[in-house]
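One record is set out below.
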Amino acid sequence: MYELPLYTIEKTSISGNKHVKIEDFKTNLSSLKEVNKPYIFIKLNGYLTIKRRKKDSLNIKEAKFQLFKRQPEVLDTSLVNSIRDKISRYYSSIGYLNSQIAIKIDTSINNKVKIEYVISEGLPSLFTKKDTLIINNPALENIVKKFISEESLIKLNTRLSISLLKEEKKKLGESLRNQGYYYFSEDQIGIKLNDTKDSTLTSISLAYKIPNSNISTTNIQYDRLFRIGLVKFNELHLELNEKEEKWISQSLNTNQLKRIVTFKEGDIYAANRITQSLQNIYATDQYKSVAIKFDTGATRVNPTIDLIRNDKFNISSELGGSVFRGIPGPFITNSFKIRRVFSVLDNLEFNSRIGFEAQTGFINTDQTRKNLELNLTAVLNLPTLYIPAYFSKWSSNIIGSQTQFGLGYDYINRPEYLRTNFKLFQRYQWRKSVNKYFQLSLFDVNIINTNYPLTETSTSFTSYLESLRERGNNLYRSFNPSFVSSIIFQYNYRSFLPSNKLVDGRSFQIGLESGGTSLNLIRNKRIAFIENLFQSNQELQFYRYLRFNLDYRKYILLGPKKQSQLAYKFASGLAYVYGSENDYQLPYEKNFFIGGPSSLRAWKPRRLGPGSYNSFTNLIEQPGSVLIESSLEYRFKIIQFLGTMNGALFLDAGNIWNISYPGQLSVGNWKINSFLNEIAVGTGIGLRWDFDYFLLRLDLASKVLNPAMPKNEKWVFNKTSFSSVENPIEFNIGIGYPF
């Protein structure tokens, strides 16, 4: 009978850790990554390990494929003490300098060992910001003072962290390199704890010392200011001959490259400008390799930029799909890019996408059909912002700027209608940092046409639009031939990189749009040659409107171990038509909609509102001109099973409304004294299954307050059930988080 070795470790545990997760210990302390399994597993594993070796008569041959390689761990007090010391050092590194770790070893049960590390964390050590500077160069001292007051990562009363001190040194070093100190290194910075001010180590002040006396060598030019010298560009070509391959350097002197390089001769050296320039060159997609070399003189840094071109042509294709209500929706996208069409830095890109997307019926959401969608675009990308010279100084501080001109064609084939859209657009795109993205379109022109096939579904749809028209609702105009031109500005900010992981952070998006601006210069507000393009008995619609939308999201990690998250979203929008020529109607795509898997989940997609409008007799999408929407979701970890399985509790609220215009009859108008009583509220529970490469989301949602019900019957939560007519549970499936 197989017996485990004497004093085999049965279990290793940690207690008293109020502010540190077990996963953090295992991640940062290699000795704790492998925690022993329960006794039965240990014995079985050890037995099978021995059995595998006995396949060889000498007991030394091991199988190539080993399932049972782990050996039983035997008590080693020196290793136990070593782990205790590592835990202590780890606590010190995260700001618990007064922590104490005790060890409990239990050998009383059948010679099996249980080890417990008992932690007393003590009070954390907090930064006081009463710091000392020891710097022998007055210019450097002034820069460091300004950095500590304006840019420092260390904030008052935050907990000491060794990793934060390293980040502080790195950021300060970058700041000095960005202000002309080419040879400065973060190693020149010493940041030490000044324990003379508080012997209890609960209040921490720092001492910044430059140069750092703890390094063996110091570059004597670390505090010398440098300027940019002569800038050169070399394009490298691979030359083949019978004996060898070698790179041949060809000197370039191109004004286009100089436009996207953000430094010039005579400027003070700045490392961030060098990085920004390399990013701008890569953003053109013209070069597969970009490298920069420096030749330094007494006070000058002379940069040489070596470039290796990308191929002139590039073709890519992608096949994918989605699933909606169990119905697959395949699609295929293709891209063809031609580089250096009109200059050395532009490219022309052709894209196509064809898909059979599964969607609910426009009127009857219980029906699901595959709808054909085709998109074709051609875009010319130019490598900088082509703007008046007056703004050139402002544009020198931006990253990855582009000017785009494009043509597009969209085709949608639904049972209710066939819709086409010809597009002509221009865009400016740029970034101020990795977190801030801007887009400005001076013209975005769409010529939209809708045809109706001779089918029962299409006839029902047009009949419904006609019934709305007879009741004063001019939604039918949104499906007439249309000319929509607009000026659009968008700003996006995100403090974190998108992923499925629970993180702290926030995002903000704002959009401004002016539609039909140029029509204000025409007396009859119509363009004759555009009207002549349509041979239709339907009136061509021209629109003039203003549109605003805002989206703010906040994510907060909760609990001492940061394993749960509170996510919050607030979105709002307003679209105002100032032209009466179309009975104050918006283009259909410019309306706001609410309800669905990523909106108010207790309502069907785009079916809520407007206001307290009761749509019992139809299920058509409900557009609106005013949007208020908010969601609060608590996300928490459940188990690890083929990934991370998280749960969610959520509360959604919001609605859309129409705007009252002179002489127009419409339902669900926004009124300041009544809109709060028309806020819809839904709640529910959800499951998020994170497989790393994608996240599957399942939500069950129920209405709490239904604004479409009579005044004293809006509370419908008590009528929730799977079979309820008044308040059925909505089941939502999606990919990724709802927000």
In short: The chain has ten helices and 30 strands. The radius of gyration is 33 Å. Confidence is low (pLDDT under 50) at residues 63-68.
